[in-house]
Amino acid sequence: MLQIQNNFPLKDLNTFHFDVYASSYIKTNSTEDLRTWITETKPDINRLLVLGGGSNILFTKDYPGIIFHPSFDDITILEKKNDEVLIEAGAGKTWDEFVEYCVENSHYGVENLSLIPGTVGAAPVQNIGAYGSEAKDVISKVNGIFLDTGKEFSLENRECNFGYRNSIFKNELKNRILITSVVFRLSTKENYNLKYGHLEERVKEFGDINLRNVRQAVTAIRSAKLPDPDKTGNAGSFFKNPEIPASLFRDLQTKYPDMPGYDLNNGTFKVPAGWLIDKAGWKGKTVGNAGVHRDQSLVLTNTGNATGRDILSLAASIENDIKNKFGITLEKEVIVI
Q: Please, what is the angle between helix 211-225 and helix 95-104, to 10°?
């Protein structure tokens, strides 16, 4: 069924907790009802926005159009074959609840992505990633509906154009579709990815290497480094880690010998945006009610009654400073509305 409301408050549907409103709000758990509504009303897709958990969005004003909030949350085992399992999860399912389900049922592949906020439907859009794993590594296909015609679609992994925090859903299909479910291909055979940083050491602190302890370790690391959005408004990592030419990286290393970087073996290096922001002296700074988190420079926070424009202004100041100091352009990871 469809639940339709006007002048709907979005404070609980964005993790910055901005007090903004949508002109219209539609919550749905029925693909058929949604398709019928689209074909009958023929909405202007330029006034439509799909909103899941609101964990990667920055509202700078009220939204003047229609917000779709998918609430499909079923989890279905489609197939078990050899050492693999195909699992379909509804787009409205809380991502961490899906990870917990997989861990409890001995399905390997998403445990490193524990405690990432948001919904299953947002995972392919952002190609979420953490601790050496990305959603693209385990996504088999993405199912959804075109918002202009109501027609259903299904895209295989190779058709999603996955990249670093990127996908076809942030580009060619941006604002054109609503994801209804995601199919994941996971392993039923013991298989871990513990090479990132000191993850393996942290896992061993909890005992043997197993799925539950990997999840516990990742959760502990994230909890220690990142603020709880329920307590301090934030959208997690605000900026992407920039990829810069190898020549620029080497020039900067002569000035900053401790500058970390990961060789992508294509003439570029990936540099931690958090390190740049920290080195520039922004960690823990506040400007009005907007701030940079004291423990994680990648996270911008609503320290009181900040607005989206306050956060955006702080972000612009940081971007300008990083450009002037390092010659590097930071790119936002969040979606600005």
A: 150
